[in-house]
Each structure stands twice: as C-alpha cells, then as structure tokens.
Amino acid sequence: MFYIANVSPRSTGKTTNSAWMGHALHERGRRVIGYDADDSRQFSRWQAAGAYPFVVQQAATAAFHMNVPQMVPAGFEDGVGVVDVGHLEDHQAVGASVLRLADLAIVNLPPSMNDVERMEELPLREFIENVAPLRLDSKAPVTWVLLCKAPNGVSEIKQVREYLEDEGYNVFTTVIPAVVKYMRTHEGSEILAKGSVFDELVTEMEERALLP
Ligand SMILES: Nc1ncnc2c1ncn2[C@@H]1O[C@H](COP(=O)(O)OP(=O)(O)OP(=O)(O)O)[C@@H](O)[C@H]1O
Ligand SMILES: [Mg+2]
C-alpha cells in the first residue's frame, strides 16, 4: 500500500481534496482506499451509502502506523491509501502517526501568506522532520505542497509559490482553484474526476514519479 497523507496546519480543503484525489486515482485504474484520520469524520460520512467507488475507513488513531497496515484487504497491496488527516494544529498525535507511515505527504495550502504563516508557526517542517527517526528508512516522507482553494486571478499565488520554493519546498504546478464545483462536495455527492484539475494532479504526480 502506498500512503498519501493530506495534511495542513488548519482547515484548508483536505477532505475535499482527499475525496477528489481518491476518485482521480481510482478512475486511472488504481485500487484506492480512503482513510479518515480525522475525528470529525467528514470523509467517511461523505462516502456513506456507497456514493464512492472505494471504501473510506475510519482511522483517526495515534496508532495509525501500527494498525492500518495490518488491515489492508487482500488485493490492495499495490493500491493507494488516501489519508485525510485532521488538521495538525489540533491533531498532532494522529498526524505524527500517519506521517510515520506516509510515502507522500501533501501539504494542502491556500495560496495566502496568512496560511503560510500558520504553516511556519506550527512549525510544519519540523513536525514532518521529527517523524524521520520513527520511520523504517529514518527519512522524513517526501513532501509536496498543493496550492488549493485558490481564488481566480490572484497574484499571491505566484508570490506564495516563489516564497515556498525559496524555502526549499516542492510545490505542485497544478493548483486547485476555488470553485463552486469543489465547494459543493458533501455527504453522498457524486464525483467524476475525469477532466477535472485532480486528474491533472495525478498526471503531474505520475510524471514526477511520485507514485509507484
Ligand atoms: N477548491 C475549493 N473551492 C471552493 N471551496 C472549497 C474548495 N476546497 C474546499 N472548499 C471549501 O472549504 C471548506 C473547507 O474544506 P474542507 O472541509 O475540505 O477542509 P478541511 O481541511 O478538511 O477542514 P477540516 O480540517 O476542518 O476538516 C468547505 O466549506 C469546502 O467546501
Ligand atoms: Mg476535513
């Protein structure tokens, strides 16, 4: 199982992005399991009643790194686990546990300096680096920033991207726009990722060899 951890310091769009990313990966033929590592349980509720073509397991536990690998169903060994992690300002124990296992950490970040400050105040970089000694390879997980909920035509996108890259962060070229289509993601809503920016995101991940 290849684990993608969607993290952020505070509420930014992680559950929305997890849902769409899960669909985009599934539509590309990958076997997907969603993991809801947030006590508020949005992700698992959204999928309730079989609205999604993949399961979402509740996994808001500080023992994520121990329990989840033992519960991977047969046939999903080469699959992708998309983990919606409760925001790190308030869910540090669960977040650290998921990051101990994550193959790819995605920082879901609106392109505003305010959100960048929240990331630095956590501080996010240290939070991710601190799990390194607890991982099999003793390295921090590969980390990429996904700019999301980006208002149209805002010059801050470029400014935030340059700032983050200067700070040494990897930043996806693909940006998730703030649009009604994504805002409307909710319990039971159907998602078709084909033709959406999340399909482009999977293409970018594949081109950058971030996925197995
Ligand atoms: N790309 C987008 N365009 C417009 N609205 C969005 C977008 N992404 C998320 N939203 C809206 O922003 C709000 C927060 O999104 P979401 O619940 O996905 O964030 P979250 O990081 O999971 O929050 P929390 O940490 O509280 O669980 C929701 O109202 C959602 O509809
Ligand atoms: Mg959420």
List keywords for this structure.
single chain; 212 residues; alpha/beta; Rossmann fold; 17% strand; binds adenosine-5'-triphosphate
3D structure, described in words:
By secondary structure, the chain is α/β, with parallel strands linked by helices. The protein has a single domain, classed as P-loop containing nucleotide triphosphate hydrolases (Rossmann fold, 3-Layer(aba) Sandwich). Helices cover 35% and strands 17% of the residues. The chain contains nine helices and seven strands; from the N terminus they run E-H-E-H-E-H-E-H-E-H-H-E-H-E-H-H. The protein starts with a strand and ends in a 5-residue tail after the last helix. Adenosine-5'-triphosphate is lined by residues 8, 11-16, 38, 40, 42, 87, 148-149, 176, 178-179, 182-183. Pfam families: CbiA. This is Plasmid partition protein. It comes from Streptomyces glycanivorans.
